[in-house]
Automatic annotation (TrEMBL):
Residues 88-234 form the Ionotropic glutamate receptor C-terminal domain. GO terms for cellular component: plasma membrane. It comes from the Eukaryota. Belongs to the glutamate-gated ion channel (TC 1.A.10.1) family. Pfam families: Lig_chan, Lig_chan-Glu_bd. The lineage of its organism: Eukaryota, Metazoa, Ecdysozoa, Arthropoda, Hexapoda. InterPro entries: Glu/Gly-bd (IPR019594), Insect_Ionotropic_Sensory_Rcpt (IPR052192), Iontro_rcpt_C (IPR001320). Its main location: membrane. It comes from Cardiocondyla obscurior. It is a multi-pass membrane protein. Keywords: Cell membrane, Glycoprotein, Ion channel, Ion transport, Ligand-gated ion channel, Membrane, Receptor, Transmembrane, Transmembrane helix, Transport. One of its GO terms (molecular function) is ligand-gated monoatomic ion channel activity. This is Ionotropic glutamate receptor C-terminal domain-containing protein. Residues 2-71 form the Ionotropic glutamate receptor L-glutamate and glycine-binding domain. One of its GO terms (biological process) is detection of stimulus involved in sensory perception.
Length: 405
């Protein structure tokens, strides 16, 4: 075809409807005003835009995501040590411990059932699964077989638990206070930005999803919205509580320019990107024909691999690193709490012992005092009797001669 191309001066933004000026602005405004014939970029296909311009066949389908700067603050996962096994395995393990304790109690009991024996067996079984030894190994063969089975199962369970726990600790994943769009809206501490004069900026005018509309309540003011993708990711990297709402393909396109590690959450929305033409453009069918040929011949896929795939970088999403303090905080907390509880129990036992010892000493002192008092009374009584006898004896010896009592 014989034609020449004239490239117009670039305008800010893909284009959106301006309520103040009551007209389309940006690149779409150029098409509507017939100042341009074709918009060569990845424009989002929306119903509102299709009323005033034409689109080519979709070139790319991409997911909408909320991108965040990876948080640097430590996030303690209190349930990390329980995630290694499912709830069913934990329940089965507890049932094995309880059932085995009861079974050992019946095997050791000789005609009587003792709660103390049951408690001792329960502690012994727990000790086995915690890799502790027995104070003495039983002599009876059936009980030996039970303990041998417990030791074998404890070794297997410990090996599986250790391997699973190490994989959780060694694999460093992004730590956001939420993982879904609903969680983001409920959290409410993160603002977000979109490209100014873009299809994302016009979402509230056409969206019916309640969660999406609530999310747009957290949108920054228009004066702070970026004109370019690079500006949007730059703002996101400079602020800790700011998200950037855009498509995955746009993130891939400038991934090498982003200066921080990026994490994201999926929003569940898909975007169709295409070129734009003026309404009723006679070249629309011609361009669509050749674009379909490029898609069928693999040219479009080759271009995607050339300009997008090689720039992918997953280091911001998943990485392998050292175990930090936040990963072992639950275990350290458990050890510290156990020491505090043990100290409290020691203080209570010591106080109880001192109270009982003092009570016993008081009783012993009272008993000794009563005994000494009784002995003293008996001695005093005996002395009184002896004194009376002595007085009588003296009176008898000093009576007049010839006196007959």
């Amino acid at each position: 075809m014989n034609f020449t191309i004239e490239i117009l001066k670039p305008v800010e933004g893909f284009g959106s409807w301006s309520e103040e000026n009551r007209k389309w602005i940006g690149s779409i405004g150029q098409l509507v005003a017939n100042k341009a014939d074709i918009g060569v970029s990845a424009f989002t296909m929306t119903t509102r835009r299709q009323k005033v311009i034409d689109f080519s066949v979709p070139l790319i389908r991409s997911r909408y995501r909320l991108f965040f700067k990876e948080p640097q603050t430590a996030y303690v996962q209190w349930t990390l040590y329980l995630k290694t096994f499912s709830y069913g395995i934990w329940i089965s393990l507890m049932m094995i411990i309880i059932t085995t304790s009861i079974l050992l109690t019946f095997m050791k009991a000789k005609g009587y059932f003792s709660l103390r024996l049951l408690f001792d067996n329960y502690i012994s079984v727990w000790g086995i699964y915690c890799q502790q030894g027995l104070p003495e190994f039983p002599k009876e063969s059936p009980i030996r077989l039970v303990f041998l089975s417990l030791y074998i199962s404890s070794i297997i369970i410990l090996a599986v638990y250790s391997a699973s726990l190490i994989s959780y600790l060694a694999l460093s994943t992004p730590r956001l206070p939420f993982s879904t769009l609903e969680g983001y809206v409920k959290d409410g501490t993160y603002k977000f930005i979109v490209m100014r004069n873009s299809a994302e900026y016009d979402v509230p005018s056409r969206a019916k999803d309640a969660i999406l509309l609530k999310m747009y309540d957290l949108l920054e003011k228009k004066a702070f919205l970026p004109h370019r993708l690079s500006e949007g990711f730059k703002q996101m990297c400079e602020k800790s509580n700011l998200a950037f709402y855009t498509t995955e393909v746009f993130h891939q396109a400038i991934n090498f320019q982003i200066k921080c590690n990026v994490v994201y959450i999926d929003t569940g929305r898909i975007d169709n990107l295409a070129m734009t033409l003026t309404k009723g453009n006679p070249y629309t069918s011609f361009i669509n024909y050749h674009l379909r040929r490029f898609q069928l011949n693999g040219v479009m896929g080759k271009l995607k691999n050339k300009y997008l795939s090689k720039k992918l970088d997953f280091s911001g999403y998943m990485s392998y690193g050292v175990v930090d303090l936040s990963d072992i905080t639950p275990s350290l907390t458990m050890v510290g709490a156990s020491m505090i509880v043990a100290l409290l129990v020691l203080i209570i036992e010591k106080g109880y012992y001192l109270y009982n010892n003092r009570s016993k000493n008081n009783k012993l002192a009272i008993k000794k005092f009563n005994y000494n008092l009784g002995v003293r009374n008996q001695l005093q009584k005996r002395n009184n009797q002896n004194l009376t006898i002595n007085i009588n004896q003296k009176l008898y010896n000093t009576r007049p001669i010839g006196y007959w009592p």
